[in-house]
Every structure is written in structure tokens, then in C-alpha cells.
Amino acid sequence: xxxxxxxxxxxxxxxxxxxxxxxxxxxxxxxxxxxxxxxxxxxxxxxxxxxxxxxxxxx
Length: 59
Hints:
Layout: E1 2-5, H1 6-9, E2 16-19, H2 22-37, H3 43-50, E3 54-55
Antiparallel strand pairs: 1-2, 1-3
């Protein structure tokens, strides 16, 4: 499972996006950014966000 914490991008937000693949995380992150933060993710931003995606480890 891949995860992205919205606060890692720089927003004051507790949102966490989880999906099976990086591309799914990016798609969901773009939707979240648009709906919640009124930001449209550009290709350049998507590449920066991709670097912040982490592999969720089992506890």
C-alpha cells in the first residue's frame, strides 16, 4: 500500500491518501488538492509529490 500525507506537501491538513499504486495516489492527491485546497496539480508538482509517496509498512 502506498501512502501520502497531505501535510508533507506543505498544506496544514491531516489528510492521508492510500492506494495500491503511485499513479492511483497521484490521481487521488490531485482530486484532494483541487476539492479541499483549490489547487490544480501541474505535471511539475506531480513529480515533486511522487517523491513524497511512501510504502506503508505492516505493523
